[in-house]
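Protein modeling request. Please complete all fields; requests missing the sequence field cannot be processed.
Requester role: graduate student
Desired output: 3D structure, C-alpha cell encoding
Chains: 1
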Amino acid sequence: MPALMPTHYTAEIVWLGSVMTDDRAELMSPQRASLELTFEGVAGAFHSGLTRASCSRVKSQYTNGTLIKNERQLSIVSQEEIDLIAAEMGVDTLDPMRLGATMVIKGIPDFTHVPPSSRLQAPSGATVTVDMENRPCQFPAKSLANDHGDAAKMFKPAARTRRGVCAWVAAEGSVAVGDTLTLHIPDQPIWAP
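Delivered output (193 residues):
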C-alpha cells in the first residue's frame, strides 16, 4: 500500500473564492475569508458534487456526459505562477476572481507540477487531494478581457504549465486565508517504463 509522506514544503492560503454561477463569460469567484470543505466540495459552487458529467479532458476514457467521480471540485493556483502569467501577458496583476480559482496559495515552487495524489492539509484537518494539472481554457481569458482587454488573449499560452491543479476533498473541514497548508506526496518512485 503506497504511503503519503509529509514534505518540508508548506503554503500559505492568500485568497479563497468559489465560482457560484454557470456564466462562463463572467466566471467570477467572489472572494471569501474562509470556506467550509465537504466531501462534495464547496456548497453551491459550480464544480461541487460527488459526481460530474465527463468532459473533453477525459474523452479518451468516457463518452462525453458519462457520470464519473468529481475530481474537479477545487481549482488551486499559486500566486507565484499567477505573477508569471501576468508578466508574460504584459499586465501588472491578475485578479483571482476572474481565474475560476477556489484557492490561491503561496510558497510551493513549481506548484502546477506537484505529483498527482499529493495532499494539502490545513490546520483544521481539512485535506484536499491533487488530481492533476488544470490545463488553461478560454473561460478565464474571456473573463480577464473585462480587466485587460486584448492582453487577455495571451492568457492561454501564458498559463500553459502554470494553471495550477484540480483537486477534490479527502477530509472535511474549514480553510481560511492565512492558513498554512502542508504538502504530502506519494512515497513511490516516478513511473519510468
